[in-house]
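User: I'm curious whether this sequence folds into something compact or stays loose and floppy. Could you predict its structure so I can see for myself?
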Amino acid sequence: MNASILLAALSIAAVDAGVADASDTLETPVMTVSAIADADADADADAEGQAAPAAPLRGMTFGPFPPAWQIDVGPGVLAIPRFPGSDGLRVLPVPQLDIRYKNQFFASIQSGIGYNLLNTRRWRAGPILRPDFGRTRSDIAVFPGLNKINIAPEFGGFLTYQPSFFTSVQLEVRQAVGGHDGLVADLTLRKIALKGKWTLGYGGRVRFADATYLRAYHGVTPAQSITSGLQAYRPGASFTDVGVSGFASRRIGGNWSVNAFGSYARLIADAARSPISKSTFGSRNQITLGASISYRFRFD
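Assistant: Here's the prediction. I'll summarize afterward.
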């Protein structure tokens, strides 16, 4: 399993940001899709009864978030590229799990683990931790001699600008400690819309990575070239991919929701020129599909 597998899994509950590594999602570190739907329902109730407050959300600084602890959990399934640059998919059972406390702490499969140190109506920023699942030997069995990449944490920070209630732009930078040992930076645009009981979203993302990351996932050393049959390749720091994605979520009664998403990404620059992605078993086109059912718990 590689970084693309992990961060594709990170989007199972809401959205994938649509990149070859399937990292990041349309969901922001504080604002969940279902929380937005809850807020909209509250607004409808106000419209039917007395006048709604001037602010879109009562007592909230910038957008919907749980009043205390909130946990979303349920089963899911995910189809992701077998490795960055692969033309095949791996189908995995992936749990939907999202834990949040007010507008401060978040820990989820789709958002990583983080804390909002800066939290205003338009700006959010803080530390973030995401795991990178690396690359197993079975993932790259078609290329004997390529190195596996160990599981490792990626530490970093994010800065999010929210110009409107349903639109956000986020920059996230992370450094791996172990594993690929590289640095990655993601720039993501996210938009969300409410259509009756449906919550819909779409967005795009572009990723930049340093040479250490590119050489770990897309490079081929002279020794690996001999055993794998691939041409030796030493990429440098560059943008790695651009992509788009969309999702749909529907409340189906009580605290239950069903969710589905898909993403398409295109490898670019040095990642696209890699002999791995250009091989018989490789592709510049990367697709991720997923679905889940979730149940929400809330605690004071």
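Summary: Residues 3-299 form a domain with the Porin fold (CATH 2.40.160.40). Residues 1-63 have pLDDT under 50 and may be disordered.
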